[in-house]
Specification:
It is built from seven helices and 13 strands. It starts with a helix and ends in a 7-residue tail after the last helix. The longest helix is centred in the middle third of the chain and has 11 residues. Strands 10-11-12-13 form a four-stranded antiparallel sheet, covered by helices on one side. It has a three-stranded antiparallel sheet with strand order 3-6-7, with no helix packed on it. By secondary structure, it is α+β, with helices and mostly antiparallel strands. The relative contact order is 0.10.
Length: 187
Amino acid sequence: MWAAPARSCGWWWPGEEVCVVAERPRAVHREPLPVAPNGEVRLHREDGPEVEFGDGWGVHVRHGTPVPEWVLREPTAERIAAERNVEVRRTAIERLGWDAYVDQAGLRLVASAPGPGNPGCELRLYDMPLDVRFRPARLLLAVNGSVERDGRRRRLTVPDGIDDPVAAAGWSYRLPKALYARLARRT
């Protein structure tokens, strides 16, 4: 009974009394997952809606994260600060670029240090702008020794009482500064 509609329409949700049917999308954009042994993909598009329908409606997705259109079109430090969703904020900062975000947001460098066990990489600790929605924090910009499952390298926020970038990196692993500083090689 449901086979014919399934072949001729897009997404659909049958219910007891009603069935919601959507047209097929005009386009669906995706990218391969960076670390995908079986060829898995995720939704992604840099310059427009990832899923597009004939009536102009679409969904914006960047590296698998659904985002408002402004993240792709006009990310700014001001819009990022106003965003409540942490994943949307992170995605917008990555779209803008970390260096541009640091400049636009006027972040103050607290300290920097070589990354233990990560030759040639620097840890940079910044004061985050004070926001009444969040407790005071600092931003640690570091190059992770290993990539995340999605292929990216993350930046971290740490408590504002940490003044040393090596201590901040150690805190993220629940290690004291002295122990983290002895890392010979990050993997």
